[in-house]
Amino acid sequence: MPLFLLGYLVFLFMPVLVPSGSDWGSNLQWRLWPTLASIAAFLPMYFLAYRGSAMTRVLCTLGIAALGCGLMAYNAFSNTYIIYAAAFVALLPGALWVRLAVLAALLGAYHGLSMWLGFPVFVPVLTAIISVAVFTGNYFQSETVRKRAELKLSHEEVRRLAALAERERIGRDLHDLLGHTLSLVALKSDLAGRLIDRDPQAARNEINEVSRVARDALAQVRRAVTGIRAAGLAAELASARLLLESDGVTLRYDAQEVALPADLETVLALSLREAVTNIQRHARATLAEVALSSTPGHVVLRIRDNGVGSAAVPGNGLGGMRERVESRGGRLRIDSTLRQGTCVEIMLPLPSGADVVTAPEKAPVGAT
């Protein structure tokens, strides 16, 4: 974009188009060389204003403004530099009123020099109109970039806090689950050790009790881990909402409650992550829909968007998704039509005994 914006320097050569009999058209050759010299001085300041520090940007902006004022006696279209300076004023550090004051001083100085040099009134007026428009556009663009950066940081903080809360929850659950059980195992093991010489039968009973308690604890841990992993799909949905809403994409979610095994939950969560990432990067969509449904034998996850669509070219992400799905005996289908959006469908076989609870209402998860 900075290179593209240099195209406006062509206005410095507009005197070539002015009739030679006019005041502006006289002594054209004498005015050309100062214009070329001004461009050589302008280019370093222009690029430094984009890449330098805040103080460098201030100095370059003042230098460009001074260049525009200094060239006025040789080129009536030196207001091009004034407009460039106004664009950089919008990006200066400080409050908005400070930038507006700098812009007003810049335009006031140019207006005074224009009147002193006898320029027509429309020249400073037109310069002021264009400068204010450019200043306004750059200011709001910079504010948009800043707010996007703040939103991204807030999303990362939400994810970090969610991960921290999840770790704390897992720690509490495991402590509550295993604390009492391990204490009981330790007590009964000590009791069995004391009884083994005096009452072998009672010692055997205690050892059997220890074995039973340990098996129950193992079953509880497995259920807890399954529950923790089952939260993966919900976590990915929350992450998908944060990712898409930052780009103004509405996410709608409609699902049945399914007690999924941990391995199938992981496959669906990772597939959802990859599909949502593709929507955010490539689809240019305004709406995305996620639907989870099941039958006694299969679970189906569909991710659909209303984006540009295209002929789907498998990449590393889609290839990895297909491998994960097919390794569980499932099927991945991608329907993508130009300007009609994309639909990704993952079908996985459910093990016998998986519970399906119908949840008829739709739970939209969307952005404003």
UniProtKB/TrEMBL annotation:
Q: Where is the Histidine kinase/HSP90-like ATPase domain?
A: 268-351
Which keywords accompany this UniProt record? Kinase, Membrane, Transferase, Transmembrane, Transmembrane helix, Two-component regulatory system
What InterPro entries has UniProt attached to this entry?
HATPase_C_sf, HATPase_dom, Sensor_HK_TwoCompSys, Sig_transdc_His_kin_sub3_dim/P
* CDD domains in alphabetical order: HATPase_UhpB-NarQ-NarX-like
Which positions fall inside the Signal transduction histidine kinase subgroup 3 dimerisation and phosphoacceptor domain?
166-232
Transmembrane spans: 30-49, 58-77, 83-110, 117-140
Q: Which molecular function GO terms apply here?
A: kinase activity
Q: By what name is this protein known?
A: Sensor histidine kinase
